Structure formats: C-alpha cells, structure tokens
C-alpha cells in the first residue's frame, strides 16, 4: 500500500493531467452534439469489431456441436428422400395399361431410419479397413446395419458398444455389396480387392449386357442392409476377356474414404423379420 501511495505521489502531476483530459473529453462529448455523435459512432464500430472477434472465437469452439446438429437434420432430410425414392420405385402407375389401374403401391414401401454419426477413426491403406463412429447402441445402432455417406455407400456395422460402433468399410476384402447398373438394372457384386482406395470391381456382369464407361452403379436393394438406389460409383473401365463369362469392370467409388467426417447408419425396421424368413427358407445371404 505504501508503494502505491508513493507511486501516486511521484506521478501526481501526470495522473492529474490524465484525469483532467478525461474530464474534458467527457464534457465535450456530453454537451456537443457533433462530437458526441462522432464519439459514439466510433465507439460502436470498435465495440462491434471486438464483439465480432469474440463471437468468432466462441463459434469456433462450438463447431463440433453445430456439426452434430446439422448432421442430425441431414439425417431426417435423407430419411424423407429415401421414403420418396422408395415410394416412386414401388409405385406401378406408370407401368400399367388402360385396362387395369392401381393408383399406387405405396403400401409396399417402408421407411428407413437414419442415425447420423461422426467418424472418429478410419483407415484406407490396409487390406481390411474399418471405421469407428461416435454413436452406438444408445443411439439405436445395431450390428449388421448399413452405413452410407452423403454421396454413397460406406460399409456395414460390425460391432457396437454403448456409445461407439465399428464399421466394416467397403474397402474390406471380405465385404460384398449387391449393386446394379442403373440404366439396365443388371445386378452384380461390388468387391474391393485392395490397392487404390478409389476403385473397386463390379463382378458377375454377363457378356450379353453392354456396360459403358461412365455408367452409374447403385445399390440393388436385394438385401435388408442398403436401400435401393444408393450411389456406389461410376464405371471407369470395361474389359472383355476371352476366357471369362463375365466382364472385368472397374468402378470409381463415389465416396472418398480418406475424407469421411460424417456418415449415416441405415436402420431397416423390418430387417429382422425378413432375415429370419430367408434363413428359415434356407436362403443364405452371401452379400449385402
């Protein structure tokens, strides 16, 4: 305290000058319209810049929460899109003649539920690649569910804990996905054989079909994992080998697995019923 008083006494003249300057500025701003307006405009400008900077810092640390919210909203929108797509596929109106007419077959379509999740671990360079998601059983995720991204198929849920889930990536030597050429509805199997993580093989396309470079490949819907019509990729090359009964087709995958951040886990409410029926009938799913 003694040092404080010593400091004030030592610089008393300067401190008095500063105090009088502040008082003068206050009186000028308070009792002069022009100077007052100029001061408050300047003060507002600088205060706004400070608040903008503060808001930017705050928003930066809230990005994770914002991204999670947007991902959940996107999941709801994609559910509606899948429902609409399924309805348009099962609606037989356009295929009927004038003799018989059914307004819609929409009762045959059923909804898929999507659960948005953040990718917290990922690999693309191994023979068998996996992902880890930040959602688990508490969010409704179960083993065997399909996983898609905003631009295409990703893989299938392998294991689940309360808050996390692992995914068998499409970049896995043992994962098979039933797919089809969109323009001809010819179905085959997508399989990744290693190497380039942007390319996979489309197998079992017979030679009487005429696939072409650039053709779109989508999921076939012949299973309970992926809805029909989910993007897989586009044909990048087609080879016809003399000693084989099928084409050798390379597909450029729609999803860039090295840049995955958010995905959607696809829940089919009728999966268990259909799987049980097919298993009882002796139909063993060799691909999903």
UniProtKB/TrEMBL annotation:
Residue span(s) of domain Rod shape-determining protein MreC beta-barrel core: 119-267
InterPro entries documented for this protein: Cell/Rod_1, Cell/Rod_MreC_2, MreC, MreC_beta-barrel_core
Entry's family note: Belongs to the MreC family.
GO BP annotation list: regulation of cell shape
Residue intervals passing through the bilayer: 12-31
Cellular component GO terms, alphabetical: plasma membrane
Gene3D superfamilies named in the record: Rod shape-determining protein MreC, domain 1 (2.40.10.340), Rod shape-determining protein MreC, domain 2 (2.40.10.350)
Superkingdom field: Bacteria
Name of the protein described by the UniProt record: Cell shape-determining protein MreC
Organism the protein comes from: Pontibacter arcticus
Keyword vocabulary terms for this entry: Cell shape, Membrane, Transmembrane, Transmembrane helix
Short name of one Pfam family: MreC
């Amino acid at each position: 305290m003694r040092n404080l008083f010593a400091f004030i006494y030592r610089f008393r003249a300067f401190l008095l000058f500063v105090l009088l300057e502040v008082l003068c500025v206050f009186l000028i701003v308070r009792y002069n319209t022009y100077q007052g307006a100029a001061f408050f405009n300047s003060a507002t400008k600088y205060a706004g810049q400070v608040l903008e900077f503060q808001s930017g810092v705050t928003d930066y640390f809230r990005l994770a929460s914002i991204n999670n919210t947007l991902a959940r909203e996107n999941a709801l929108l994609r559910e509606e899109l899948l429902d609409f797509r399924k309805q348009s596929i099962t609606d037989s109106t356009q295929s009927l003649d004038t003799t018989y007419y059914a307004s819609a077959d929409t009762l045959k379509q059923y909804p898929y539920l999507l659960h948005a999740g953040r990718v917290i671990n990922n690999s693309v360079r191994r023979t068998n690649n996996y992902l880890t998601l930040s959602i688990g059983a508490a969010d409704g995720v179960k083993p065997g569910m399909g996983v898609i991204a905003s631009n295409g198929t990703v893989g299938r849920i392998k294991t689940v804990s309360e808050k996390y889930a692992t995914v068998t990536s499409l970049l896995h030597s043992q994962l098979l996905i039933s797919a089809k050429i969109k323009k001809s509805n010819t179905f085959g199997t997508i399989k990744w054989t290693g190497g380039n993580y942007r390319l996979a093989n489309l197998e079992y396309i017979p030679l009487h079909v005429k696939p072409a470079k650039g053709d779109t490949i989508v999921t076939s819907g012949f299973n309970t994992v992926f809805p029909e019509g989910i993007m897989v990729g586009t044909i990048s090359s087609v080879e016809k080998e003399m000693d084989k009964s099928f084409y050798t087709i390379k597909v450029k995958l729609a999803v860039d697995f090295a840049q995955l951040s958010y995905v959607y886990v696809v829940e089919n409410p009728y999966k268990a019923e259909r799987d049980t029926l097919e298993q009882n009938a002796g139909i063993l799913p060799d691909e999903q």
